[in-house]
Design goal:
The protein is α/β, with parallel strands linked by helices. It has one domain (26-135). 16% of the residues lie in helices and 12% in strands. The protein is built from 3 helices and 5 strands; from the N terminus they run αββαβββα.
């Protein structure tokens, strides 16, 4: 997938309409209730601290957010409403715009399909987005 990058736009190259540096279309694979949960997770402090998963006061019928580092421990068959994997940029990217080779494996989570990359700071996002096509950002998986 190639990004637009005009004025920091992170929509797909050749898109219609205005440029957007934080398009919501990246979350199109999630249902509305799961998008809401993800939005709330960014503002919520996990209860219990070291439980290794995002928890907040939302309906328990949403998809479960499974931290990538807990993939082997998560009881995936128990999540009645499904699940989605959370990847940090350091876990997914080897270099700006270049996923780690392990993610070429068809059984690994794919951002935009069954996973998302969570940028915890603007700096993390800027390192990837503002690297520019001349530095390898043109093709972001």
């Amino acid at each position: 997938m190639t990004l637009c990058l005009v004025a920091g736009c992170t929509r797909t190259a050749g898109h219609y309409g205005n440029h957007d540096d934080m398009p919501s279309s990246a979350w199109a694979f999630l249902s509305a209730k799961d998008k809401d949960k993800l939005s709330k997770a960014g503002f919520a402090t996990p209860r219990g601290g070291a439980k290794g998963a995002y928890q907040n006061h939302v309906s328990r019928s949403n998809k479960v957010i499974v931290p990538f580092e807990r993939i082997a421990q998560a009881p995936l068959d128990k999540y009645e409403s499904g699940y989605v994997y959370r990847l940090f940029p350091e876990q997914y990217f080897e270099a700006p715009g270049q996923p780690k080779p392990i993610f070429a494996d068809p059984v690994m989570p794919k951002p935009g399909i069954d996973a998302f990359v969570l940028y915890r700071t603007h700096h993390q996002l800027a390192r990837l987005i503002h690297a520019g096509p001349e530095r390898g950002l043109a093709d972001v998986a």
